[in-house]
Amino acid sequence: MKIVNWNPEPVLARQLTDSNSPHAHPDVRHTSYDEVHQLIGTSGCSASAPHWNWDVMGILMMEHGSLLVCPGDYIVTFAPEVHLVIPPDTFKKLFDTGTFG
Fold first, then answer.
1. What is the spatial distance between Cα 29 and Cα 69, in angstroms, rounded to a whole number?
2. 50 versus 2: which is more confidently predicted?
3. Which end of the chain is least crowded, N or C, by CB within 10 Å?
């Protein structure tokens, strides 16, 4: 299992989906307003605070669909194209309580 903080700093969001960036995740790509709206039904922003705009979010491509990734989210990779996206607050709670490790 591999755990990656997709975007430790929101200003790096575009770099993380740029394949030339050292911060890029191989399965995350840029998204669009329409795609965010289709996936989660919002007006191109994340569903919960801090309501990230579509241009700093990414799409995590998987074998059976895709997931929206926001700045700061953790991507847990179990196998190629088998991922779990965990918001930073949930990730912190899991590790602070010793649920994972």
1. 10
2. 50
3. C
Write down the residue that tokens 């329409």 correspond to: 34
State how far the Cα of 71 lies from the Cα of 58, in Å rounded to an integer: 8
Structure tokens at 50: 């801090």
Phi, psi dihedral angles at 41 (to 5 degrees): 75, 15
Q: Which residues pair with 79 in a beta bridge?
A: 82
- As a whole number of angstroms, the distance between CA 6 and CA 85 comes to 9
Q: Are 56 and 13 in contact (CB under 8 A)?
A: yes
The alpha carbon dihedral of 54, 60, 66, 71 has a sign of negative
pLDDT score for 37? 93
Q: Please count the CA atoms within 13 angstroms of the CA of 88 that sit on its side-chain side.
A: 13
